[in-house]
Design a protein that fits this description.
about 325 residues, Double-stranded beta-helix, four-stranded antiparallel beta sheet, 9 helices, about 25% strand
Length: about 325
Amino acid sequence: MTISEQQNTAAPRQGLGLVHTLDGAERDALRARLRAAAAGGAAPARGACREAVEASALPLERIGATLSGGDIPFCLLRNLPVDALAQQWTVGPAPLASGLLLGVTAALGLTNFGYHEEKNGAILQDVHPIAGAEDSQSNAGRVAFHMHVESPFLPRAARPEVGALICLNNETATPTRIATVELVKRQLSARHVLALRQPDFRLRHDQSFEVNGYTLSVTTALLKEVDGRDETRCGIYAEGAHAAAQEAVDAWKRAADAVALDLVLEPGDLLLFNNYRCVHGRGAVEGRRWLKRVYSTRDTSLLSEGLISVWRAMAARHIDHSF
């Protein structure tokens, strides 16, 4: 099922944010600029990719305003140039898709980063099923991936502000699910909302992080108003410290599933979302699927050579650990 077909059934639950589709000529012009920026390499220069995107027909000002201050803070950019895959493709270099992720985020004034403890420190990350991890609640799994934010066990300064996913292959139309914090909150009782604002929830690290067999956890609120907007750090592994807290988090998860919009990303589709104010997930993956991902932020206080150490982030004294 295509994205437009999905809209007809899902739109009453969660409206779409900004959607922009390049026409054929605009796509081809951007492809030519990105190829020149890559100069035949597998890792195009970020500055050159930014210049290619800034010269394109993408509405960068509208995209940035949507992500930072829009009521529905996610954007879907369609018909972008991505790498053509052979019938029997394998995951490998994808300079066009990589260049788009680098160029779009740079043009929005964001800084890309990764984690020392996730995907071997990769900043440009490949998202696809991995043998042996089929049942995991992670981007390497095949089972449905529940609604969550990225890296919720870390303090806000160490979490991605914006997540970006670009599709190279999605042959069995696996949906990417997304919902805004505001819409999820509207489905809850005042009692549940108040409970979610209390520091009564335990989060632990995601399965994609390698932490030498340790369990990293934090006790925190799951909902907080920041700069006039509610944000969440509700992840896969969120548990209430008592019965009322567990009831509230269970209600949150049910509401997120109920209102989520299902987007079937096709090759050339790029989804950008505010990771503080949206939750996202994924349906079960039946066939081959390959997306590339990058995390971005404006807060670079914890970055060193483009990476954040989760150990240092959790121990840092100069940042706010309350949320």
